[in-house]
Each structure stands twice: as C-alpha cells, then as structure tokens.
Amino acid sequence: MRLQTQGMKIAVAEPVGGPLLQALGIEVVDPEYALATMNHDDPAPRDIARLEDAMRQKTVRLLIINPAMKTPSVSRIEAIAQKAHLPVVDFDEFPEAGHAWQHWMQDRLDRLARALGVHD
User: Fold this and answer.
1) Strand 9-12 and strand 63-65: pairing?
2) pLDDT-based confidence at 96, cuts 50/70/90?
3) CATH number reported for the structural domain that contains residue 48 in this entry
4) Which of 26, 52, 64, 107 has the fewest beta carbons under 10 Å from its own?
5) What range defines the domain where residue 31 resides?
6) What predicted TM-score, i.e. pTM, was given to this entire model?
C-alpha cells in the first residue's frame, strides 16, 4: 500500500494514527493544529487558516478525525472538509472492548485505503 500512498498529503484534526501514517509515507499537513486539539488548546489562527485553505483548495486528500474529540473547532473543520467534498475518516485512539488489536488496525487501514482510493 505504501507504494500507492507515498507522498500523499492529508489533514488530521488530532494526532491519531501517526506511526501508521508515517509507515505509509503519508504527509500530515497540519501537525500544529492537531497537537493543539489534542492538548485541548485553541489552534493558532495561522494554523486554522492553513488547514482550511488546504481543504478548500483540495491540496489534501482527506481529513482524519478522532470521534472522541468532538469540539466546536473540530466540527467546523469537518464541515469545511465535507463542503469541499473531501472524505472524513474516523480514527479511534483505541480498539473497542473485546475487539482484537489486529482487527481494529485492519479496519483503520481499510477505511483509509477506501477514502484514498488505493488498494493494498
């Protein structure tokens, strides 16, 4: 899959999936925004503007969100992604109780591959 995803650019609302995305050669264009969200801080205006521009101009392929981190700021960028017709992909931080780690990770990979239009 890495051969197909190497160099692709995406946005993330919170830094979930970092090692997986790195292994696939995917570039996260908004690490400052994501880090602020994770730390329950307000992202800097320049980081918000950079992220919104990337989505509106479609220089990113999709937006990854952590469904556990629903904030007004995340809801706003999710709405911008949807308006730009960018896929929004849920990435949970942890597998659900009773869900094997391998299946959870495969589910994440499958959702990502579908949204990016690649095949493993």
Assistant:
1) parallel
2) confident
3) 3.40.50.1980
4) 107
5) 2-116
6) 0.92
Q: How far apart are the first and last CA of the chain?
A: 5
Burial of 101: CB neighbours in 10 Å, binned 0-12, 13-18, 19+: exposed
Q: 3-state SS string over 39-92?
A: CCCCCCHHHHHHHHHHHHCCCCCCEEECCCCCCHHHHHHHHHHHHCCCCEEECC
| Tokens standing for residue 17 | 């999936």
What would the two tokens of residue 77 be? 């960028």
pLDDT confidence of 69, banded at 50, 70, 90?
confident
pLDDT score recorded for residue 93:
87
What number of residues does the chain have? 120
Residue owning tokens 């959702």:
111
